C-alpha cells in the first residue's frame, strides 16, 4: 500500500426531504447566489424546494450553466458575484453546475490577472468562497470532492482545477430527485460512476486489500441497482444506493494508497471534443480496447474483478480477465450504451491519429498507472475502439 | 436506507515514516502539550520520532495516561494546560490516550462548574482545543472520530462524550508502529475493530447495500490479515491493512443510514468493570450468546454475513446464520481469545443478575437496534455466556 493523505470535510445531508435542511447550513447573514443549469429544476419541484428553504436569506439567482460548464457563461456569473457582493454560493444541479460553482468559488477570491490563469497555471485553490450543493443528478461525485473541469469554447480547451479550498461545505443528497431524471441521463450517471471506480481500481495489485474491496463494493452495488433504477427511478431504495455509490466512487477514499489509471478519461475527453459524444459514453467506448491492449499489465486485477464482482469461477487468470472485459462491455450495453465509436459516428476514420497527435502536442507521452502509455499506444487503443 | 448526515474533517496521514509530517500540521506559534501513556513509546522509538518532528516547537509533556483514561489523571494534565497556556494538544498513543486528549480538548475550553459535567450532563462539544494524534495501537478508531470514553475510579463510572469539536485535526498512521505491539494487544485490537463493525452491521436488512458491503469488506480484510499480523507484526502490508481497517471500522462511514446495536458493548463494559477483563475480550464473551438469544431478529443479516464473509454456501437461512455465529466465535478463539466468562474468572455466579440490576437502575430498559433488549433479556444473555 502506498503512503497517502486523506481529508474530506464536506458535510453530507442524505435522505428524503432533506433539501429544507440547507436553511441551517448557510450563515444567516449570507448574501447567496443560487446557481443552476437549463431550468429542469423548475419543472421537477427542486427549484421550489430550494427557494422555500432559502426564504429567510438574501438570494440572487444565476441560471443557464451548460453541460461542460463554459468559461464565458461563468464569467457573467462572476460579475454578478462581484457587483452584488455575494458571500455564499449554492449550486443546484449535477456535476456541471457544481464544477462551475467551484470555479466561481475560486475566481471570486482570486487576485491574479484573469481567472483563466487558475486553469492554465494549475493554481491550487487553498481558499475559495464558501459554497454548498443540492445534487440533482448523481454521476460525477463533484458534490463530495474538490475538483472541477471547466470548458472554454473560444479556445477549445477543457481544463481541470482543484485544491483543498474547493470542497463543498455541505451537499444535500435527496434520492427522490432521481425520479424525474431521463433514462439516458441515468444510464450515463451509472456508467460514469462505474468508470470512476474502474480508473482507480483496474491497475495492478499493491496489497491495498480494503481499498480493493471498497471499490468492488461500489461496482457490485451499481450492478445490482442499475436495472432497477433504469426501470423505475421512483423506487427509493435503489435510487438511494445509486446516489450514495456515485458519491463514494469519487470522494477520494478508494484512490488512497493505490495507483490510478485515468487514461480512459483522457482518451474519452477527446471523443467528446471531436464528436460531442456524452462523456460517460466515451468511456464505455474506450474501456474494452484499453483493457485488451493493456491486458498483461492489468490481468491480475481484471481476474480479481471477474471473480469478486462478476462471480466468474471458471478458467485461469487469463480466462477470467478476458471474461471481465466482456462482462463490463455487456453491462454498458445493458444500459443501452453503445461501446464502439462507429455506432456514434460514421466519420471516425483518422480519429486515432488525431487523438494521438493531440497527446503528443501536449507532451502527454506516458499516461496510465505505469506512465508508459505513449501516443503510439493511444492510437492503437482508439483504433481498436472503432 | 435511513436519512443521515456525515461529516468527518480529520486529515489522515498514512504510511511509512510519516511521523515527521506532524511538523507541517501544527501552527508554528503553538505551545504544544504532548500526551502519552505508560512510556512504551520511549522503548519503541516513537517518542524520539515525535520529539524530532516537534524540535522547532515549544513543547511540554504529560505521560502516564492509563488504559481506560482516568479523570483524576486527566485533571492533572488540565492544570498543566491552563498553567502553561497550552494552545495545541498532541496525543501519542492508542485509544485511551486519544480519548483522554479529547476530554482535555473539551475541558480546556469548558466554562461550566467542573469538567466532569461534560460527561454527566452529556454536553456536546462544539469547539475544543485543537489537537492531533500519532496512533500507536490500532483498535478503537478514536483517531478518526469525535467520541471518547472517560473513567472515574472515585465513583466507578465510565461515561461517553463527544461532539463535532472533537475530531482530531490530523492523525498520523504509520503501520510500522505495529511491529512492537505485544501479541495480546494485537489480538485485542483485531477483536475490537471486528466488534465495531458487527455492532453497526448485525441488525436487520434496511436496503443499505453499499454500507453492508463496506462493513463486510472490513470484516473480510481483518479476517485475512489477522493471522499474518499476529504471526509477524513487522510485515508491512498486513500491518497497513489492519491499521486502515481499524480506522474505517469506526469513523462513522459504515453506520450512516443503518440501524446499530451496541448492546454487546454495554454488557461488555460491565464485565470490564466487574472483573477487569480487557475490553475486546468482554465483547468476544458476549457476542455468541447475544446472537443466539436474538437469533430470530438478526438471522437475515447473520446469514448474509455467513455467505459473503465466511463463504458459507450450504443450508437454509437458519443454518447459515447459526454457522456465522460459530465462525465468529472460532475466529476470536483463533486469536487466543477465550469466549466464555468462566475462562476468565471462577467467580462468575451472579454476574448476570448484577449486570441486569445495573441496567435497571440506570433506566436502560431497551437496548439494541429494536430498543427491546430489556434487563431481563440481558440477564439471560450474560448467563448464556458463562
TrEMBL record, chains A, B:
InterPro entries found in the cross-reference section: ADH_Fe/GldA, ADH_Fe_C, ADH_Fe_CS, BDH-like
PROSITE patterns: ADH_IRON_1 (PS00913), ADH_IRON_2 (PS00060)
GO CC list: cytosol
Stretches assigned to the Alcohol dehydrogenase iron-type/glycerol dehydrogenase GldA domain: 9-175
UniProt key word Magnesium: no
GO molecular function annotation: alcohol dehydrogenase (NADP+) activity; butanol dehydrogenase (NAD+) activity; metal ion binding; methylglyoxal reductase (NADPH) (acetol producing) activity
Keyword set includes Oxidoreductase: yes
Protein family (similarity comment): Belongs to the iron-containing alcohol dehydrogenase family.
Stretches assigned to the Fe-containing alcohol dehydrogenase-like C-terminal domain: 188-386
Transmembrane segments: none
Superkingdom of origin organism: Bacteria
Keywords: Oxidoreductase
Name by which UniProt lists this protein: NADH-dependent alcohol dehydrogenase
Amino acid at each position: 500500500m502506498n503512503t497517502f493523505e486523506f481529508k474530506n470535510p464536506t458535510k453530507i445531508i442524505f435522505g428524503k426531504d432533506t433539501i429544507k435542511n440547507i436553511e441551517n447550513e448557510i450563515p444567516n447573514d449570507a448574501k447567496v447566489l443560487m446557481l443552476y443549469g437549463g431550468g429542469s429544476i423548475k419543472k421537477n419541484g427542486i427549484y421550489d424546494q430550494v427557494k422555500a428553504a432559502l426564504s429567510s436569506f438574501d438570494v440572487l439567482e444565476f441560471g443557464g450553466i451548460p453541460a461542460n460548464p463554459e468559461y464565458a457563461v461563468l464569467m457573467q456569473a462572476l460579475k454578478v458575484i462581484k457587483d452584488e457582493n455575494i458571500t455564499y454560493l449554492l449550486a443546484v444541479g449535477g456535476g456541471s453546475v457544481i464544477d462551475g460553482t467551484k470555479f466561481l468559488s475560486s475566481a471570486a477570491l482570486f487576485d491574479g490577472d484573469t481567472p483563466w490563469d487558475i486553469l492554465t497555471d494549475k493554481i491550487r485553490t487553498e481558499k475559495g468562497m464558501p459554497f454548498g450543493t443540492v445534487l440533482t443528478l448523481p454521476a460525477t461525485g463533484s458534490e463530495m470532492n474538490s475538483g472541477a473541469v471547466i470548458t472554454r469554447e473560444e479556445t477549445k480547451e477543457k481544463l481541470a482545477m482543484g485544491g483543498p479550498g474547493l470542497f463543498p461545505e455541505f451537499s444535500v443528497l435527496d434520492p427522490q430527485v432521481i425520479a424525474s431524471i431521463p433514462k439516458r441521463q441515468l444510464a450515463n450517471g451509472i456508467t460514469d460512476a462505474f468508470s470512476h471506480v474502474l480508473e482507480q481500481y483496474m491497475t495492478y495489485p499493491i496489497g491495498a486489500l480494503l481499498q480493493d474491496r471498497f471499490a468492488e463494493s461500489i461496482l457490485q452495488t451499481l450492478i445490482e441497482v442499475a436495472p432497477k433504477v433504469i426501470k423505475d427511478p421512483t423506487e427509493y431504495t435503489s435510487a438511494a444506493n445509486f446516489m450514495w455509490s456515485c458519491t463514494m466512487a469519487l470522494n477520494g477514499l478508494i484512490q488512497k494508497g493505490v495507483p490510478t489509471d485515468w487514461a480512459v478519461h483522457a482518451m474519452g475527453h477527446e471523443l467528446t471534443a471531436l464528436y460531442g459524444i456524452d462523456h460517460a459514453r466515451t468511456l464505455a467506448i474506450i474501456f474494452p480496447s484499453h483493457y485488451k491492449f493493456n491486458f498483461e499489465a492489468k490481468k491480475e486485477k481484471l481476474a480479481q474483478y471477474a471473480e469478486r464482482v462478476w462471480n466468474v469461477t471458471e478458467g485461469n487468470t487469463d480466462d477470467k480477465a478476458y471474461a471481465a472485459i466482456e462482462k463490463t462491455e455487456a453491462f454498458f450495453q445493458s444500459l443501452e450504451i453503445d461501446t464502439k465509436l462507429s455506432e456514434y459516428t460514421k466519420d471516425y476514420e483518422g480519429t486515432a491519429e488525431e487523438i494521438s497527435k493531440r497527446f503528443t502536442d501536449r507532451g502527454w507521452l506516458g499516461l496510465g498507472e505505469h506512465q508508459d502509455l505513449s501516443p503510439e499506444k493511444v492510437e492503437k487503443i482508439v483504433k481498436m475502439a472503432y
